[in-house]
Amino acid sequence: METLISLVNKIQRACTALGDHGEDNALPTLWESLPSIAVVGGQSSGKSSVLESIVGKDFLPRGAGIVTRRPLVLQLHKIDEGREYAEFMHLPRKKFTDFAAVRKEIADETDRETGRSKQISSVPIHLSIFSPNVVNLTLVDLPGLTKVAVEGQPESIVHDIENMVRSFIEKPNCIILAISPANQDLATSDAIKISREVDPRGERTFGVLTKIDLMDKGTDAVDILEGKSYKLRFPWIGVVNRSQADINKSVDMIAARHREREYFQNSPEYGHLASRMGSEHLGKLLSKHLEQVIKSRIPGLQSLISKTINELETELSRLGRPVATDAGGKLYMIMEICRSFDQIFKEHLDGTRSGGDKIYNVFDNQLPSALKRLQFDKHLSMDNVRKLITEADGYQPHLIAPEQGYRRLIESTLVTIRGPAESAVDAVHAILKDLVHKSISETMELKQYPTLRVEVSAAAVDSLDRMKEESKKATLQLVDMESSYLTVEFFRKLPQDAEKGGNPTHSIFDRYNDSYLRRIGSNVLAYVNMVCASLRNSIPKSVVYCQVREAKRCLLDYFFAELGKKETRQLSSLLDEDPAVMQRRTSLGKRLELYRSAQADIDAVTWG
């Protein structure tokens, strides 16, 4: 069982080394899944003295105000014989045999992370102590809860510490060691208050009562220690720490443990509880409980690690491999990325992905609506018909039918269709550009190389611009062709009876009457509507042929032609990877290394 605690210690150290502190970030965290014991208490609750009693050494910084400003992951390793020593993870090759130097290094390392501003940090310090006087155990010493900020600290420090402590102890794998002084009302205990918030049933909280020997005469803590005042799943444990005078005199910790045992054994109030009191019993109890918790969590840890390894490998695969070093490899990589983009673009047009339907909407709704808004009948008003007919006749009125007048009326009406035709071209162009940008964002490989992404996007848009100009030219030619050559058969079939104003035997003067002009306007409107119906079908064909079809066929052809002329240096500039992606790949690689190492360590222990 002892190897289980060592296993978790090893994984915790690896977590910190690879940047997994259990904080909220975009990477999966193993730290939060590891069973741990967090030590919680208010300032002056005796928290530091309890830890030093368990270790049997003076090693924690002391002083006024908030002394512990970073989590201290304290890993205790029992050795059979030899001199006691300590090691910090950030100083891997240095052994500390002077525990006063350990105290100083904790303070110095805290200042390195937080500065001398008395701020706090959630980045832990890892300290391993090897001694024959300890049990195998890991504890996380958290900053002491406080009610006021001291000089040099922001007012938010009170809430900052609470939030940090809560972020540790709210995790279901965290065992809470709640330190409360016996000479204060338990109802005001900071440790009990915050523990109750995250563990209301007390199922993972160990209550520790300090300063029992400092209670007022005539009072005792029997009701608390027997679980009558505040019930927890696990029995309360009372400890008697060294007094400040003992600390000042550097009283030996082992001797202090002996005096603590004698206090409980000889006390009339606590004699019946002596076997489960004291810091020595506390250390053994926590070690045994931590072993049991770790053993119960191993299957879940193995499952979590396997699942996360698969997820990390999948994302690393998606991010892609590092860039090739030779020109051929670079060119091949760029071509493959461009083909991926081109395929996604085509899928949008063909309906496999969304967006292509918007082009049909232009032809089915936008173009017909624009044609309707032209209102040809207003353009062919009586006054406009009379004006154009008479102007077309010039100094000599027409003899039989006003052919020039008809032509001018038709041409001046048909020219208005150019507007909707151009709008249809522009609308499809805008949709195609939008699909290019969407395809760019959906091409995962392009996210890796921002310069290539910009170049491909610019090349695709340039191609679309050229296609738009060709499409506009062809589409407007359709309109112009209708104006340049009229369909004669349409007019030959028109009725020529006198009643409808078509009889050429009328006098010249009667031919400018309202009935006659109205008939001309009606004939022209009928012809324009016929042409408009024809263009409504032919304009979409021209647009699709010149723009959509060409975009599918050769969107990046010009870019590929220019790509082949580039030198290795220019190709390298296209594959300048986004620093954020590089950082992400590095972070994922480190996290994957952590999980694979943890998987191997756990498998070795479980199989063993």
Topology:
Blueprint: H1 2-17, E1 36-41, H2 47-55, E2 72-78, E3 85-88, E4 91-96, H3 99-114, E5 125-131, E6 137-141, H4 157-169, E7 174-181, H5 190-198, E8 205-210, H6 222-225, E9 237-238, H7 244-248, H8 253-266, H9 279-319, H10 327-350, H11 357-372, H12 376-379, H13 382-393, H14 403-414, H15 418-442, H16 444-447, H17 450-484, H18 488-492, H19 514-554, H20 557-563, H21 568-574, H22 579-607
Parallel strand pairs: 1-6, 1-7, 2-5, 7-8, 8-9
Antiparallel strand pairs: 2-6, 3-4, 3-5
Helix pairs in contact: 1-9, 1-22, 2-9, 9-22, 10-15, 10-21, 11-15, 11-19, 13-14, 14-17, 14-19, 15-17, 15-19, 17-19
Please explain how this structure is put together.
This protein is an alpha/beta fold. 57% of the residues lie in helices and 8% in strands. It is built from 22 helices and 9 strands. Strands 4-3-5-2-6-1-7-8-9 form a 9-stranded mixed β-sheet, with helices on both faces. Strand 8, helix 6 and strand 9 form a beta-alpha-beta unit. Helix 11 runs antiparallel to helix 15. The termini are close together. About 2% of the residues have low confidence. Its main location: cytoplasm. Keywords: Cell cycle, Cell division, Cytoplasm, Cytoskeleton, GTP-binding, Hydrolase, Microtubule, Motor protein, Nucleotide-binding. It is found in: Cytoplasm, Cytoskeleton, Phragmoplast. It comes from Salix koriyanagi.
